[in-house]
Design brief:
Layout lengths: L3 E7 L8 E7 L2 E7 L17 H4 L2 H7 L5 E3 L6 E3 L2 H19 L4 E5 L5 H15 L4 E3 L6 H11 L10 H4 L2 E5 L3 H4 L1 H13 L4 E5 L5 H4 L3 E3 L6 H14 L5 H7 E2 L1 H7 L5 H8 L3 H12 L11 E5 L1 H4 L4 H14 L9 E4 L6 H7 L5 E2 L3 E2 L3 H11 L12 H9 L5 E5 L3 H4 L3 H10 L2 E6 L12 E4 L8 E4 L4 E5 L12 H12 L18 H11 L12 H6 L2 E2 L26 E2 L18 E6 L26 E3 L1 H6 L7 E5 L4 E8 L7 E5 L39 E8 L4
Parallel strand pairs: 6-7, 6-16, 8-9, 8-12, 9-10, 11-22, 12-13, 16-17, 17-18, 23-27, 24-26
Antiparallel strand pairs: 1-2, 2-3, 4-5, 4-18, 14-15, 19-20, 20-21, 23-28, 24-27, 25-26, 25-28
Bound molecules: iron/sulfur cluster.
Length: 728
């Protein structure tokens, strides 16, 4: 009999970053429990986290894992095994030939917020330091780049200033464009705890749908899609008129107030009602609660905002973020317990990707690609002559460039763009036109894998070592509880081995010492740590050994060991003069408006018990009990008008594509709205849809229109029509 061992690690699903205890025996994960000592969850787990062990069953994994390197001689042909050495040599030669023929910018790397920080770090260095291209971006572009741009524009740095403990200390929770009851369940448990502990707590939820989160709200602002800035401007106008702003905070800690104050005069209650559909009384109540001037209390009470994709996944995502942060600045609702704008990250390590700068417009440790001094610092750190100055292609631009024939080689790691990117027709054109597509993943089930010329098997949760950072800047260890399958490698190792083969083939890098001398994640993390010295996210006070004992928040500069729970508690924001900036933004509208031909607003989102493209959560039978197939939810009156009964099949058609789905009445929807979850692509895992048809997934309908500042696409909304399907 083998002894059972327990390994402390982190949940691989959402950005809450819950600690888990993994029990294993004989190389098999037998149970997963919440880690009672982890400050994100204190022992709790949601339905997904608590069933992780079921996803790791060897008999289940054997059906879905990519277990050896494979290559295709031609697209559409059989994928045949090859040895790791051959695979690495082939990829190194292929990249070298592409660079030689077309230049480094003909290569694109598309990575993932599921990667660990160390994986992310080496991918970024591979692109910008070794190859000499900034063409690296991540699927985190789809979930948080507007939050990044919003923080930088107002507070001066991409640093969420609040923490989870603030939920319990807030007098008002302003939850906007987020449904934590389903998407961040353990945070929602903390919100419920706060409500129980403090019956006077005010909860405001802004969401076009009446979600489970909205059910808990004292005030649900069911605003029209795309009208967020109108709402925030209207609230600010009320605060101004009622003298609920904080003039001293504005005068001493901010800049740009006058321009914004003049602009928001146009956001009258009538205008807000017209654009948002919010009644004047509700607007005034929201403004008062947000400002913290609640009845019978003379001191200002703290307000914490929690927000996510409803703000970010918009063609005005950055404006949505800055307009919300303006409210915090106007009332001094930041830098104190229970207050501040706290953006929630969707993925487990979107934050880690931001920290290492693995995006097309960023550099390591929150440095800006556009800043020559920052480029020189990173080049010196890496020991390379320079880092290229031209911005790389962000997610949509990268696939557009591949579709146009500019990017010849795509290396895609730990993500499934043939499911998750909007405008799937464009993505498929890109994958078909690219001359060479590499897919590096643990799972072979994603639609993207069908386009791959080379498939590289990666290890996954339960088998990997490294770190992740959650939404409150907390770095946690991820640990291996069982060995990976023989031929599945850690992502950092795959990149390192390709780099070692490629470097001698690149004339301006061949003479340098090895740029990738790593023997494990600790060595990579140490280099990352050094890159943060003197930066806003400085972690030079932390050691790998300290991370072994407990998760820590950044910043944690040399001489400290605990990290800061809250930012900007002193007099200084992260701007050159220490003052936060009010951002001035004009209210916009959705990028893909409804009209007579496409009269319904499609809203997309997550389901409680599933994760992304179902590759992991779809392996657990119990998780299908909540929702077993993709459905289009509609208001009852719209179904009646279109002659649809529950379960009828209907075509949903946007300006870009069409999908077939059964319809169902959605109680939380208003007339004119349709909701569909984003989890299903054109391959339905774990039980076929009742249609018996292959579904193209909701992203056949969504638009590639994106925020000009953050380049985050408007995945949340598309104009569609719905027609009953007349099937034989
Ligand atoms: Fe995992 Fe998120 Fe659930 Fe926590 S809330 S157990 S991190 S999926």
């Amino acid at each position: 009999m083998t002894a059972s061992t327990t390994t402390r690690s982190t949940c691989p699903y959402c950005g809450v970053g819950c600690g888990v205890l993994i029990d294993s025996e004989g190389g098999r994960i037998t149970r997963v429990r919440g880690d009672p000592e982890h400050p994100a969850n204190f022992g709790r787990l949601c339905s997904k986290g608590s069933t992780l062990h079921l996803t790791a069953r060897p008999e289940v994994q054997a059906q879905v894992r990519l277990l050896q390197p494979l290559q295709r001689a031609q697209r559409g042909g059989a994928a045949l095994p090859l040895a790791w050495d051959q695979a690495l040599d082939t990829l190194g030669q292929r990249i070298a030939a592409t660079v030689q023929q077309h230049g480094a910018d003909a290569v694109g790397l598309y990575v993932s917020g599921q990667l660990l920080t160390e994986d992310y770090y080496v991918f970024n260095k591979f692109a910008k330091g070794l190859l000499g291209t900034n063409n690296i971006d991540t699927n985190s572009r789809l979930c948080m780049s507007s939050a990044v741009a919003g923080y930088k524009a107002t507070l001066g740095a991409d640093a969420p200033p609040a923490c989870y403990d603030d939920i319990a200390q807030a007098a008002t929770l302003f939850i906007s464009g987020a449904n934590p009851a389903w998407a961040h369940p353990i945070l929602f448990r903390r919100i419920e705890d706060a409500r129980r502990a403090n019956p006077a707590l005010k909860i405001i939820v802004c969401d076009p749908r009446r979600t489970d989160t909205a059910e808990l709200a004292d005030l649900h602002l069911a605003l029209q899609p795309g009208s967020d800035v109108w709402l925030y401007h209207g609230m600010l106008r009320c605060m101004l008129e009622q003298s609920w702003i904080d003039p001293q905070f504005i005068a001493t800690r901010t800049q740009g107030w006058m321009g914004l104050a003049a602009l928001v005069t146009q956001a009258t209650p009538e205008a807000v009602q017209q654009h948002c559909g919010i009644a004047p009384g509700d607007l005034l109540r929201a403004a008062r609660w947000f400002a913290g001037v609640q009845d019978g209390n003379s001191t200002r009470q703290p307000t914490l905002s929690l927000y996510c994709q409803g703000l970010n996944q918009s063609a005005h995502g950055t404006d949505n973020n800055t307009a919300l942060i303006n409210l915090h600045l106007a009332c001094g609702q930041i830098g104190k317990p229970g207050a501040g704008p706290l953006s929630l990250t969707g993925q487990p390590n979107a934050m880690g990707g931001r920290e290492v700068g693995a995006l097309a417009n960023q550099l390591s440790a929150h440095r800006n690609l556009a800043d020559a001094r920052h480029r020189a610092e990173v080049a010196a750190l890496w020991g390379v002559p320079s880092v290229p100055a031209a911005p790389g292609k962000a997610a949509i631009e990268m696939f557009q460039a591949a579709a146009d024939g500019q990017i010849k080689l795509l290396w895609i790691a730990c993500t499934n763009p043939a499911h998750s990117l909007p405008d799937q027709a464009l993505v498929r054109r890109a994958l078909q036109r690219a001359e060479y597509v590499v897919v590096q993943d643990a799972y072979a089930t994603g639609a993207t894998a069908r386009f791959a010329d080379l498939l590289l098997p990666a290890s996954t949760w339960g088998e990997k070592e490294g770190t992740v950072t959650n939404s409150e800047r907390r770095i946690s260890r991820v640990r291996a509880a069982v060995p990976a399958p023989d031929l599945a490698w850690a992502d950092w190792r795959i990149v390192t081995e390709v780099a070692r083969r490629l470097q001698p083939q690149l004339p301006d890098r061949a003479h340098l010492p090895s740029l990738f001398p790593y023997d494990g994640p600790e060595a990579i993390w140490n280099e990352h740590r050094e890159s943060t010295r003197g930066r806003d996210l400085d972690i030079t006070g932390l050691s790998w050994a300290q991370l072994e004992t407990a998760p820590r928040q950044w910043p944690c500069p040399e001489g400290q060991s605990q990290g800061l729970a809250r930012l900007y508690t002193n007099q200084h924001f992260a701007t050159p003069d220490g003052r936060a900036r009010f951002a001035v933004q004009l209210p916009g509208t959705v990028a893909d408006p409804i009209d007579a031909r496409h009269p319904l607003a499609l809203l997309t989102g997550r389901l409680r018990d599933q994760w992304h493209g179902l590759s992991r959560s779809g392996l657990v039978e119990n998780l299908w009990a909540h929702a077993s197939e993709p459905v289009a939810q509609m208001a009852r009156e719209d179904m009646d008008r279109l002659g649809l009964a529950p379960g009828d099949l209907a075509y949903l058609t946007s300006r870009r594509g069409s999908v077939l789905a059964p319809v169902q009445a959605g109680e939380g929807l208003r007339s004119g709205q349709v909701f569909m979850a984003m989890h299903w692509g054109d391959e339905v895992l774990g039980g076929a849809s009742s249609t018996g048809k292959r579904l193209a997934g909701v992203n056949a309908l969504t638009t590639a229109a994106r925020c000009p500042q953050s380049l985050q696409p408007e995945l949340k909304h598309a104009a569609i029509k719905v027609l009953k399907a007349e099937l034989p």
